[in-house]
Fold this protein.
Amino acid sequence: MSVFEAFIRGIPKAELHLHIEGSLEPEQMFEFSRRNKVDIPFRSVEEVRGAYAFSNLQDFLDIYYQGAAVLHTEEDFRDLALAYFARLKADGGVHAEIFFDPETHTNRGLPFSIAVDGLLAGMKEAETRYGITSKLIMCFLRHLDEASSFRTLQAAEPWLHRIAGVGLDSSEKGHPPSKFARVFQAARELGLKICAHAGEEGPPDYVHEALDILHVDRIDHGNRALEDDALTRRLAKEGMTLTVCPLSNLKLCVVMDLKDHPMKRMLNLGLKATCSSDDPAYFGGYVGDNYIRTAEAVGLTREDIVTLAKNSFTGSFLDAASKAKHDRCDRRPRRRELTNEGAGGPTALKSRTNFIGAASSGETVVAIRPTGTSAGAPRSGGPRSQMKQAKPSHW
Ligand code: ADE
Ligand code: ZN
């Protein structure tokens, strides 16, 4: 692993834009289809992956809803969540706020409880197993009508103390936030946090509506806000968090080349951007890959990475004390050594980067520096000699 990659994967981060149904890997699709005796129109994992070529959001959604139909039991949802959290852990994730789409499941006959209880069980187990905290956000499908979203809010009533917020997803064009003004008002009155996908494919006006009609706490995506200078200035001034998903944008042709992705521009404009994976099983990368490939493509610096990681906590729905705890975490890179050097001479080193704030007590940590700086010269057989060159030339 390069210094660059170790730094990015090691930095403590939260993921704020993740559809749990979009973490269904093809292998799991086969496993759940066998388990539940559900037919899927694919014969192999390769065939499934081959079908993931999308020209726009709708192309993706058609296959995504088909994939979600293999999920039938609480155990499926629990397993799905746990598999996601294991991958998040490997990417330095310590907190996640995950979306689920109840109507995708209730509209094919599953009781509301199946998805929500299964996911909550997975989230609880992830905290025990991996120390990852998480929150659940229930999304309304915007291609459905307002009555369906109200039925969903009503069905969620017994679980509302365990649901942090509501979101708005699915086909954006032709389904403006204003279509759901009343259900979001009801959700707000229930004390739920509010987010909405806006400006992914839809125009800047949808971002205006999300702000002024839904009164969002967060905008999911928000890319097209950049087409409107006054809106961009407003988002920056209000410190509105944008949950940006670069590999999703590439795969759904929101950008045609990752080099054209606006992440760097967003940060330079003072927007509170974060970096997330959206539907990682479909878009070719989890949160760490999103950071790494975007950093390579648009030239994010270490400071940019630290800003994205910090924004992921300040933009989260964690309480103030938890945010402060994450904010105190020192994000200077530290490399964990094995501690038996005195007994057995220099030993093999763990390849992952650690951070002061994330290190458990008693562990030895040594600083790493960007390749090419003079301090911290490697000892023979030591950590730096096992590191490849940092990838982007500016690192
Ligand atoms: N549902 C799952 N992923 C989505 C996305 N990227 N946009 C809108 N709805 C979604
Ligand atoms: Zn999304």
